[in-house]
Design goal:
Layout (H helix, E strand, L loop, with lengths): L9 E5 L10 H15 L3 E7 L10 E2 L2 E6 L8 H16 L3 E5 L7 H6 L4 E5 L11 H17 L2 E4 L2 H10 L5 E2 L14 H5 L7 E5 L8 H11 L5 E5 L6 H12 L4 E5 L3 H10 L2 E4 L8 H8 L4 E4 L2 H4 L8 E2 L4 H12 L3 H14 L5 H15 L18
Parallel strand pairs: 1-2, 1-5, 2-4, 5-6, 6-7, 7-8, 9-10, 9-12, 10-11, 12-13, 13-14
Antiparallel strand pairs: 3-4
Length: 393
């Protein structure tokens, strides 16, 4: 990371729990994007929620400053209170751009504009469709989406389906800048495989928080029905705001030695487990554009994904998809994929890696940087984007 160049544009980020090593899709997005923006010359501050701060969290990570701001442990209020405090912090410190993630925190976009801040919002998905929310919370999230679309200076969307939503429902312009995947290589080490007593290429893995829309219970039922001899199921992730559902998942794990919940793991640990997995499964009912699926594809691990718009954007083979909640079809897909030969797996891996080419974080960062420069009121002709060292893809 080159930090010697003067910053072209200052950016403050809100709407996420924090980085690094904080679980969540928006957090993974921010962990990949903001160090790259720093390498391109931006001065970036991420405002995290103090209760999610890891014990070993640095004040500066890969050139990105991390400011931890209080947030109450109250479902529904946590994000709004944190965003309110973050907007006040930004109003004092005057970044060129305030970057707000996720539709709930967008409710505070008008306050940011009242303080004469330039606001960019990124739409990561229709959070009001998540199963964990009741009617009042869904109404607030829908309002946040409407407010953000109206008041933001620029809108970023991460998928074609969200772009269509912005155009058809809100009649506003938005820029499609998808999630990406970095330069990942399969990990040779197997220390975690020994820890969880699993055999290479003979376990199914899901990587996600234990929340209803990720539908771990569907995968457990399908895995049990598939009766894959000698196989295990690893569920990587912890609970965040859905303890009742998480306890149901943990109860299922406790009753079957072949099903293991590892809890939250660091990215390097997840990479090792996904590298050696026989199947990566994502049975979600709702996604924005899943980074975990992109990473599994990049590592060449055979994947199965629910038939929803976000997963369809990956353009997987038809046999890789199954209807949400269809336990029988998912069981059949698991049996079919588990029966593939090593040669067939190599062909699958090559095809999956090729499909990831268009999801390149370095190109995504450059597009985002250009947008930030434009919002900040700079002329791109007068601003030099410092190119990081090219990386192979």
């Amino acid at each position: 990371m080159n930090n010697k160049h003067p910053a072209n544009v200052s950016i403050m980020a809100l709407g996420l729990r924090g980085i690094p090593n904080v679980p969540g899709g928006v957090e993974a997005h921010a962990s990949a994007l903001y160090p790259r923006l720093r390498a391109l010359g931006a001065n970036v501050t991420v405002m995290g929620r103090s209760r999610y701060r890891p014990t070993d969290a640095p004040a500066v990570w890969r050139g990105v400053t991390i400011k931890w701001i209080p947030a109450p442990n109250l479902t529904g209020a946590e994000a709004l209170v944190h965003t309110f405090l973050g907007v006040l912090y930004a109003a004092v410190h005057r970044p060129d751009v305030l970057h707000i993630h996720a539709v709930g925190p967008w409710l505070l976009a008008p306050l940011a504009k009242l303080f004469a801040l330039k606001v960019v919002v990124t739409h990561h998905g229709q959070d009001y469709l998540r199963e964990k929310w009741g009617a009042p919370a869904r109404a607030i999230l829908r309002l946040g989406e409407r407010v953000g679309m109206r008041f933001a200076d620029e809108r970023i969307v991460i998928s074609h389906s969200i772009l269509e939503l912005a155009q058809a429902k809100y009649h506003c312009k938005a820029t499609l800048i998808p999630n990406g995947v970095g330069v990942l290589q399969p990990v040779a080490t197997k220390s975690l495989l020994d820890k969880y007593a699993v055999t290479p290429n003979r376990y199914v893995i899901q990587v996600s928080r234990l929340v209803p829309e990720k539908r771990q219970l569907d995968l457990i039922a399908a895995f049990t029905n598939a009766r894959l001899s000698g196989w295990k199921l690893l569920l990587v992730g912890g609970a965040q705001g859905s303890e009742r559902y998480a306890n149901l998942v943990r109860k299922q794990c406790a009753s079957n030695d072949a099903i293991i919940n590892t809890g939250f793991l660091r990215p390097s640990e997840v990479q090792e487990l996904v590298s050696h997995a026989g199947i990566f499964a994502l049975p979600s009912s709702h996604e924005g554009l899943p980074i975990c699926l992109l990473e599994a594809m990049k590592l060449g691990t055979p994947v199965l994904a629910s038939d929803i718009p976000a997963n369809r954007e990956m353009e997987l083979d038809e046999a890789s998809y199954f209807p949400v909640g269809d336990i029988q079809t998912l069981s059949r897909r698991l049996r079919e994929l588990a029966a593939t030969t090593p040669g067939e797996r190599e062909i699958i891996a090559k095809r999956l890696r090729e499909a990831c080419v268009r999801y390149n974080w370095d190109a995504i960062a450059k597009s985002t940087m250009q947008l930030m420069i434009r919002v900040a009121g700079r002329s791109s002709r007068g601003v030099h984007i410092h190119e990081p060292r090219p990386q192979p893809h």
